[in-house]
Amino acid sequence: MDQRWAELARTLRALGLWQHLPADEAEAGERAVAEGAHPLGGKATLDEEPGLRLCYVDGETMAEGGVARVLAEWAPALRRHGVDPHIELVSYPDSVEDGDYVITINGRRCVVWTPQDWVANSPWAVATVRPLAVINDLLAEAGAVPRVYTLYAGGNDAEAWLLDPRIVAAIAESGLIREGAVPALAAHA
């Protein structure tokens, strides 16, 4: 096995990727990465409990009015970092041609999607990323270290991870993970 995997595993352990797990599970995660597993999948995160750092963000659900429900599921984890999300619906049109889907998150306006997003065939992706970008703004204002990163944003199996940016940098800089499988910061476009 390429020694770079073992180096990445040691780095991720030192940065705290598995710090919330019992020692034996943390060792198993480190070992899985050393053997070539994606750091945020498979055996490397086998014991990851959704809601702690991981949140499933189905793009279709997000686009079809589910942002509040999804963020409510993740609220306990966000509260631990100083963000208590309060979501209010501003507008959800009967038809995509009739206007924008808009919410507020802690009083901040967030256009989840517009009719143009549907024309561009990207409503699921933007409906995932835009609200999470607002959460990142709130995390920054709270002085929290972690930020929200996405994997496969807009897909039915999309994931959002609350991670220390140094962990994501180590994954990206390793050169071991293909570009589309490196977590992307949820940011305003």
Q: How many strand elements?
A: 7
Rg from alpha-carbon coordinates? 17 Å
Figure out the total of helices.
6
Total count of domains: 2
The biggest sheet amounts to: 4 strands, antiparallel
Beta-strand share of residues = 15-25%
Which residue ranges are poorly predicted, with pLDDT under 50 across at least 5 consecutive positions?
none
Could you state the order of secondary-structure elements as H and E?
A: HHEHEEEHHEEHE
Q: Assign the structural class, choosing from mainly alpha, mainly beta, alpha/beta, alpha+beta, or little secondary structure.
A: alpha+beta
Globally, the shape reads elongated
Helix content: 40-55%
Please state the average pLDDT score: 95
End-to-end distance, in Å?
38 Å
Q: How do the strands of the widest beta sheet line up side by side?
A: 1-6-5-7
Write a concise keyword list for the protein shown above.
189 residues; alpha+beta; 2 domains; 4-stranded antiparallel sheet; 3-stranded antiparallel sheet; 6 helices
